[in-house]
Amino acid sequence: RSADRKVDLLITGIGRLVTPVGSHPRGGKEMAVLKEIPQAAIAIAGGRIVLADAEATVLRALGDAVIGEVLDAGGRLAMPGLVDAHTHLVHAGSREHESALKRSGVPYLEILARGGGILSTMKATRTASEQALYDQARRSLDEMLLQGTTTVEAKSGYGLCLEDELKQLSVTRELSKTHPIELVSTFMGAHAVPPEYQGRPDAYVELVVDVMLPKVAEAGLASFCDVFCERGVFTQEQSRRILTEAKRHGLRPKIHADELESLGGLQLAAEVGATSAEHLLVSDDAGLQALADGGVIPVLLPGTSFNLGLNKHARAREMMDQFHLPVTLATDYNPGSSPTESMQLIMALAQIHLRMTPEEIVTACTINAANAIGRGSEIGTLEAGKQADVVIFDVPTLAYLPYHFGINHTFGVIKKGRAAVW
Ligand code: NIG
Ligand code: FE
């Protein structure tokens, strides 16, 4: 592997490099297995990793190759850039006015039924200009990058009509062209029933299927389609219709399921061949078995149970230990149930509430998350051939990262071979 070509960037002085290996989701016990290299270096060319290994080995392999830039990590810890596989990135406004209501015991779905919640953000998003949506989402992306996130999935679902869903999705597309963070776009027209269709959810489902899906697909504005399968939102049957039609249009299915009540969303996810099923706070054994049998990735969002004060946590340990599932973690960044951009906070919550180990947490935030958005062959590990997405954390040990919570440990972020934060 003599690097006779030019190396654009060489990261030296990595005290410890930790990474999962391979391109596939890592389930159960495999999640705890990381490759760990002390005194490491990473050579990067053309935005890709040429070699990630012991520093002495890398320097030997480089020989007299021309080296562009050299960055010294100063003995710190390097891992793959974090992948946030579930966010509602683009929206207007915020909902701190609902905090007191939530604390006084009004349930999340009751706030929605009163026209608040998702519908409150829908109103703000419908009246916002593209520029305003862009500016607000861009600030969130800046924060995510500073926190070590290099790839983000972004769902629509605050327009809830053709024009405003397209507006949200085109803002996502604009951001993906102009921000270092890479975005994977998900169409979620079925996030709630808008007021115009109050009491006529089936008519809204028809609008999503007959009008929105074809337009979104034709414009190439999304790779995935998601639906909120929950009591009072969309039933299993309505979700089936949307996800089946989405597939016909070339969009890969995802589902919000078992967040508050189970409506058979996990069985549906397996049935339609969904890439992922997300939330899973109240999932039972039959649902988890369906995911395992169907090869569906569970995406857990501990920021949501924390912020909604639910005292109820996803069964991550059983998902890994009994069902060998490739558990994934994400922020669910949104103005209602999880207003945080920080994957580092999610890591801390995962250790405490989901009882995951630091190694499992790394796997959940990198290679498994990459697979949850269909990008496992490109990102999620630090291996030759993968895109050079790297985060350097200023921590003495890996275990320190989820342990010391509430601060930002990021020292540097490399996206596609370029220093985005240093
Ligand atoms: O993933 N559950 C549905 N959607 C979001 C919340 C969106 C909102 O409250 O604005 C979620 O929790
Ligand atoms: Fe969500």
Automatic annotation (TrEMBL):
<feature type="binding site">
    <location>
        <position position="158"/>
    </location>
    <ligand>
        <name>N-formimidoyl-L-glutamate</name>
    </ligand>
</feature>
<dbReference type="GO" id="GO:0019556">
    <property type="term" value="P:L-histidine catabolic process to glutamate and formamide"/>
</dbReference>
<feature type="binding site">
    <location>
        <position position="256"/>
    </location>
    <ligand>
        <name>Fe(3+)</name>
    </ligand>
</feature>
<feature type="domain" description="Amidohydrolase-related">
    <location>
        <begin position="78"/>
        <end position="415"/>
    </location>
</feature>
<keyword id="KW-0378">Hydrolase</keyword>
<dbReference type="GO" id="GO:0019557">
    <property type="term" value="P:L-histidine catabolic process to glutamate and formate"/>
</dbReference>
<feature type="binding site">
    <location>
        <position position="191"/>
    </location>
    <ligand>
        <name>4-imidazolone-5-propanoate</name>
    </ligand>
</feature>
<dbReference type="GO" id="GO:0008270">
    <property type="term" value="F:zinc ion binding"/>
</dbReference>
<keyword id="KW-0479">Metal-binding</keyword>
<dbReference type="GO" id="GO:0050480">
    <property type="term" value="F:imidazolonepropionase activity"/>
</dbReference>
<comment type="similarity">
    <text>Belongs to the metallo-dependent hydrolases superfamily. HutI family.</text>
</comment>
<protein>
    <recommendedName>
        <fullName>Imidazolonepropionase</fullName>
        <ecNumber>3.5.2.7</ecNumber>
    </recommendedName>
</protein>
<feature type="binding site">
    <location>
        <position position="88"/>
    </location>
    <ligand>
        <name>Fe(3+)</name>
    </ligand>
</feature>
<dbReference type="InterPro" id="IPR006680">
    <property type="entry name" value="Amidohydro-rel"/>
</dbReference>
<feature type="binding site">
    <location>
        <position position="337"/>
    </location>
    <ligand>
        <name>4-imidazolone-5-propanoate</name>
    </ligand>
</feature>
<feature type="binding site">
    <location>
        <position position="336"/>
    </location>
    <ligand>
        <name>N-formimidoyl-L-glutamate</name>
    </ligand>
</feature>
<feature type="binding site">
    <location>
        <position position="95"/>
    </location>
    <ligand>
        <name>4-imidazolone-5-propanoate</name>
    </ligand>
</feature>
<feature type="binding site">
    <location>
        <position position="86"/>
    </location>
    <ligand>
        <name>Zn(2+)</name>
    </ligand>
</feature>
<comment type="pathway">
    <text>Amino-acid degradation; L-histidine degradation into L-glutamate; N-formimidoyl-L-glutamate from L-histidine: step 3/3.</text>
</comment>
<keyword id="KW-0369">Histidine metabolism</keyword>
<dbReference type="InterPro" id="IPR011059">
    <property type="entry name" value="Metal-dep_hydrolase_composite"/>
</dbReference>
<dbReference type="GO" id="GO:0005506">
    <property type="term" value="F:iron ion binding"/>
</dbReference>
<dbReference type="Pfam" id="PF01979">
    <property type="entry name" value="Amidohydro_1"/>
</dbReference>
<feature type="binding site">
    <location>
        <position position="158"/>
    </location>
    <ligand>
        <name>4-imidazolone-5-propanoate</name>
    </ligand>
</feature>
<comment type="function">
    <text>Catalyzes the hydrolytic cleavage of the carbon-nitrogen bond in imidazolone-5-propanoate to yield N-formimidoyl-L-glutamate. It is the third step in the universal histidine degradation pathway.</text>
</comment>
<dbReference type="InterPro" id="IPR032466">
    <property type="entry name" value="Metal_Hydrolase"/>
</dbReference>
<keyword id="KW-0862">Zinc</keyword>
<keyword id="KW-0963">Cytoplasm</keyword>
<dbReference type="InterPro" id="IPR005920">
    <property type="entry name" value="HutI"/>
</dbReference>
<feature type="binding site">
    <location>
        <position position="256"/>
    </location>
    <ligand>
        <name>Zn(2+)</name>
    </ligand>
</feature>
<dbReference type="GO" id="GO:0005737">
    <property type="term" value="C:cytoplasm"/>
</dbReference>
<feature type="binding site">
    <location>
        <position position="334"/>
    </location>
    <ligand>
        <name>N-formimidoyl-L-glutamate</name>
    </ligand>
</feature>
<feature type="binding site">
    <location>
        <position position="88"/>
    </location>
    <ligand>
        <name>Zn(2+)</name>
    </ligand>
</feature>
<keyword id="KW-0408">Iron</keyword>
<feature type="binding site">
    <location>
        <position position="332"/>
    </location>
    <ligand>
        <name>Fe(3+)</name>
    </ligand>
</feature>
<feature type="binding site">
    <location>
        <position position="259"/>
    </location>
    <ligand>
        <name>4-imidazolone-5-propanoate</name>
    </ligand>
</feature>
<feature type="binding site">
    <location>
        <position position="86"/>
    </location>
    <ligand>
        <name>Fe(3+)</name>
    </ligand>
</feature>
<feature type="binding site">
    <location>
        <position position="332"/>
    </location>
    <ligand>
        <name>Zn(2+)</name>
    </ligand>
</feature>
